[in-house]
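User: Please fill in residues for this 133-position structure.
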């Protein structure tokens, strides 16, 4: 199974304002098929709470901060994202929950697949069974 990891992105510092970019295959280990973002999250709300069968993702806190809780069936780990020049790579078959959103948090996600509701594993017990295979 691929490993969850924080990936630093290039940061071009400039007195006019900094610039960061991400390229498929160069910085993240997949081709980008879809980009979506979560924003205007009311205080205390939690997003996610599922895994994917085939999608790999890369999540960046473009603005503000939030925590991504990752479970692989054996371990559970919290990753706090709060800078726009790095992100969290989450391979398929990891249970992920996003919480503790700050005001004005903007969570950008790059995905390796087009949207497919059938790719979701929303039942935690099914997820645990799949991680044993
Ligand atoms: P979902 O991924 O379940 O959100 P969460 O971050 O809470 O896990 O998506 C919420 C809804 O949005 C769901 O009805 C599916 C829809 N959706 C799309 O249509 N396209 C997308 O790319 C995504 C990510 C979600």
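Assistant: Residues filled in for all 133 positions:
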């Amino acid at each position: 199974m691929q490993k969850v990891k924080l990936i630093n992105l290039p940061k071009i510092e400039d007195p006019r304002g900094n610039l960061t970019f991400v390229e498929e295959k160069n910085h993240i280990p997949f081709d980008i098929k879809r980009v979506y973002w979560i924003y205007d999250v009311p205080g205390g709300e939690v997003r996610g709470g599922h895994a994917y069968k085939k999608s790999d993702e890369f999540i960046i806190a473009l603005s503000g901060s939030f925590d991504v809780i990752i479970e692989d069936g054996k371990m559970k780990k919290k990753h706090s994202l709060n800078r726009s020049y790095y992100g969290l790579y989450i391979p398929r078959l990891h249970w992920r929950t996003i919480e503790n959103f700050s005001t004005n948090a903007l969570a950008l996600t790059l995905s390796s697949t087009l949207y497919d509701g059938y790719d979701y594993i929303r039942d935690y017990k099914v997820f645990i069974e799949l991680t044993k295979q």
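For context: The chain has one helix and twelve strands.
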